[in-house]
Recover the amino acids of this structure.
């Protein structure tokens, strides 16, 4: 049981390049999330997927797209990377408390460190 | 989701209790209080959560005031490995907003 895994661990891009960050979870969770964390700051939600086939914007969605490929996988794509997207990206997953709709605790992956030059 | 206010940093002696405060004066009746921590550059780790009653687990205790406008996370016997940034979050559902948190340093 690996929990939440992310690839790659590190990436350097040039401005304008595109890339996809991959995330997978093996806990059979319905919901998955993408956050970014800038130096000295807390995490900010980019996008989330409450269930397979649905995605919703979070606090800072501009410049990103997501795909909920299946229940296990949730990818984050940067179509044209900008230096402002230099950050650490965390993926997380959670499930719902039965009958309440309230999300259980989120489990986080180890992060992807992205540098855009 | 309601906003939270936490001290920027705190120190604690090893073996002593660490008490981390959080103000959430605009919390609504159905929002939960969650605590996470982030050790160095790792992904955040869940600690504990509660709605109205005080909660305790193997990691910590959570004390929520009767009016729910503030809470305190208690690490009963802090160790050097508890040095981390601690985040207090109030949330209803999917959108979990992290603030800057409290940087706790446990000293020998």
């Amino acid at each position: 049981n690996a929990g939440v895994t992310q690839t790659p661990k590190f990436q350097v891009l040039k401005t304008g390049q595109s890339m996809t960050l991959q995330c997978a979870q093996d806990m059979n969770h319905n919901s998955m999330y993408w956050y970014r964390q800038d130096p000295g700051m807390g995490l900010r939600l980019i996008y989330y997927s409450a269930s397979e086939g649905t995605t919703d914007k979070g606090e800072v969605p501009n410049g990103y797209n997501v795909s909920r490929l299946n229940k296990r996988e949730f990818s984050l794509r940067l179509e044209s990377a900008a230096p402002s997207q230099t950050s650490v990206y965390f993926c997380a997953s959670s499930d719902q408390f039965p009958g309440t709709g309230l999300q259980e605790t989120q489990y986080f992956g180890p992060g992807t460190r992205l540098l855009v030059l | 989701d309601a906003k939270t206010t936490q001290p920027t940093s705190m120190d604690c002696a090893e073996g002593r209790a660490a008490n981390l405060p959080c103000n959430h004066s605009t919390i609504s009746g159905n929002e939960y209080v969650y605590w996470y921590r982030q050790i160095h550059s790792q992904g955040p780790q869940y600690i504990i959560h509660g709605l109205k009653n005080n909660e305790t687990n193997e990691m910590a205790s959570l004390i929520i005031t009767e009016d729910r406008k503030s809470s305190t996370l208690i690490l009963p016997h802090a160790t050097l490995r508890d040095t981390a940034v601690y985040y207090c979050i109030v949330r209803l559902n999917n959108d979990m907003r992290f603030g800057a948190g409290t940087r706790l340093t446990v000293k020998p």
